[in-house]
Amino acid sequence: MGSTSFSFLLAVLSLCSSVTSQSVAQNCLNAQIRNNLQDADGDNIINNNNNNLNNDNNNNGNDNNGNENQINQQRAEDVTIAAFESICRNYENYITCFEGRLPLSNQPADRFLQLVFTRGNMEVAYQGLCTLDLQELRNVIRCVLSTPEVRRCYNNFNRGVNQVVNLINQNQLPAVTLQELACNVSVGRYRCETAVYAQCDPAAGRIMRDFFYAGVTNDCREDTGVTSRYTAKFGGTAQIVGSGLLLVGCFILCLMSSYQTNG
């Protein structure tokens, strides 16, 4: 990956880290991207895009502001796709990081994730995205990064997470009830977020909907009425709910915010 784009990605990761207080999810995402984004193919893709933008900039010197916005937008799109490609190159390793570190953490965000993470469902979600829709995601990534309305979804989600964590601390509800509550909070965010994406581009809404809903189990899908093409094709597990996908959405939100600030 080009040094400029890689530096931009690391800056976004630092921003996300400050928001999530170095949760296990963030640490695993950081490690995956740092380990996998500097391969030769990634370098060629990013450098070619940057070279094209630099050529455009040289040919249109009187439109500096427009070119700067174009460069920032292209960089954000490149970095987001590179992050997904990084995970897709070795999502088993990414999931293993969650599986090993999550039970050991006392961070509030991780305590919520402990209720909603299962390896099998996360594998189905990434298998579906990486084998069926990654190329199409490249075509709609601009839509995903240009929907500031998703902040409302995250605000509501964060309130739900805090309520569930408070209930965990009270230690009065059985685990199955807490898992069901976590399912409802997660699916509520996914419904809100994918509806926003669908308004921008129906394909973006469909891809992210299939991705997110593959991360929940049959019980959660049946209780909430959601479906996923990925689960229909690759299967799923029978536990209450399973999702390691929450942090991916947060990463998109952080990157979107950085792009809009710079652009």
UniProtKB/TrEMBL annotation:
* Entry keywords, A to Z: Membrane, Signal, Transmembrane, Transmembrane helix
Which protein are we looking at?
Uncharacterized protein
UniProt source species: Elysia crispata
Position of the signal peptide: 1-21
Segments passing through the bilayer? 240-259
Tell me where on the tree of life, at the top rank, the source sits: Eukaryota
Question: Region entry Disordered: which residue ranges?
Answer: 44-69
